[in-house]
Every structure is written in C-alpha cells, then in structure tokens.
Amino acid sequence: MIFLRNILILVFAGMSLLSVAQEKDTLTQPEEVKLNKAYIKSYFTDSWEITKSPLRWKGRQWCTFAAVGGVTILAYIHDDLIRDAFQRNRTHGLDQASKYFFEPLGSGVIMIPLTAGFWAIGEITDNRRAARAGLTGIKAMAITAVFTYAIKYATQRHRPYEDYPPNPRIWEGPFGSYTSTSFPSGHSSVIFAVATVFATEYRDKIWVPILSYTLASLASVSRVYDDKHWASDVIFGSALGFFIGKFVYKSTIMNPDLLIIPGVSASGHPGFTMIYQLR
Description:
Radius of gyration: 21 Å
Helix content: 55-70%
Shape: globular
Structural class: mainly alpha
Number of strands: 2
Order of helices and strands: HHHHHHHHHHEE
Largest sheet: 2 strands, antiparallel
Low-confidence stretches: 1-30, 256-279
C-alpha cells in the first residue's frame, strides 16, 4: 500500500511538471540559473542575507512583520480551541486525503522530485525557465528548512499530542530536551517556500499561482487536522516559507550581482554595459 501510494504521488507530480515545464519562457529574465559553483555558493550568501535582512527593514517590512506576528499571537491565544474544533470534525475521507496526499506533499515526497524534475526537464529540453524554477525551488526549500529547524530547536514547543491534556503553552526554550519541535511547522514553511517560487516564476499563468498556494494552504491546514501542530505553528511557518521563497527568487533570478546589458555607444559602436550590484 505504501509503495503504491508513493508511485501514485510521483505519477501525479510527473504529470504536473510535464505540463508546466514544457511551457516556453515568456518573461524576460536577466540571468540563467545553473548548477555550478556560483549556485552552490548562493546557498550561503542568501542565508546570510536573510539572517541580517531585519537590519535593513523599513516601515513597510516592519508593518508586515507586525501583521504576521499579530495574527500568530491571535491564533496562539486560541490554539486549544482551534485544535478542538478540528478534532471534533474529523472524517474518514479527510483522514485518507491527509495521510496519502497532503502529508507527503509537505514532507518532501512530492516537492523534492517535482523541483528536481523541473530542473532535469529544463536541462534536457534546454528550457531555461523550467531549469531555473527547479533549482531555485530546491534552494528555497533547503534554506527554509535550515531556518525552520533553527527556530524549532530555539523554542522547543510541545506538539498537541505530547501532553494530556494538550497544552499549547509549553515551550522548553533552547535548553530543553530537543524532542519537542512544534514551532514553526516545517511542512508549512517548506511547501510555501516552493509554492512561492513556482507561483512567482509562472506568474503570467494565473492557474499556477492559484494551484500552488491552494495546495500549500491545504497541506498546511492538514497539520492542524492531523494534530501534529498548533494553528499558530502553521501560520508562522507558512509566512516564513513565503518570505524566504520570495527572497530567494528575487536574489537568484531577478537581482543577480552582475548584469550585462547589450547596447550601442554614443559613437554608434556596439558594446555592452556591466553593472555590479553591491548588497
């Protein structure tokens, strides 16, 4: 049964990536993304830039952070009530959907072959858009996982099923047993990071952002439904994945360090302008 489930999931992922990866690049992008030393190095440089980014935040960024924090706190206040509502309304059909689709969707069983498949198909067919979507998605997923687990081990919040009765107020902090990793939800952060990359890359095809964010949202909500996370875990994790996905996409694709712009000089001779962006 488990083997069949995984096969069906991979077939679904394969059909999805084939339909999108074969689309031609209709957007003008300043740089191709390839699996090389610069790409590997960008994992570290992007992680460092994300770490120190709050130092450069302005009013808009702080307002967004405050809004996310406010919604997370509001959910935190009502975490136990939200959990009880979900558990009272469980059904066999939803249990099966969560177990065999939404849980694997957020765990990487689908996301890893999906992103790798986009990259592979892009390389084989010379579709640079698919290749960069795949590689950028993989990077966003990896960086998000690192930040997510750093916060998990720093906070060490108990999951709903760890205590009886479930208690959303138990946080062991950075010096706990390292067995409680509820906050934030890793499934939510990772799937939203990948969904954001694909939604942004294929933003000219309205169905891709809709499908990406819908699946990410359902996979995230399933974590509360499955009693694996509190609602506040999922909200913060989803926001974390979204913002890291946006940052990684912009850093990797839309704002390369070196831009080469062809043109013609004042004397009429062809040439190019090189612009190096200091970050």
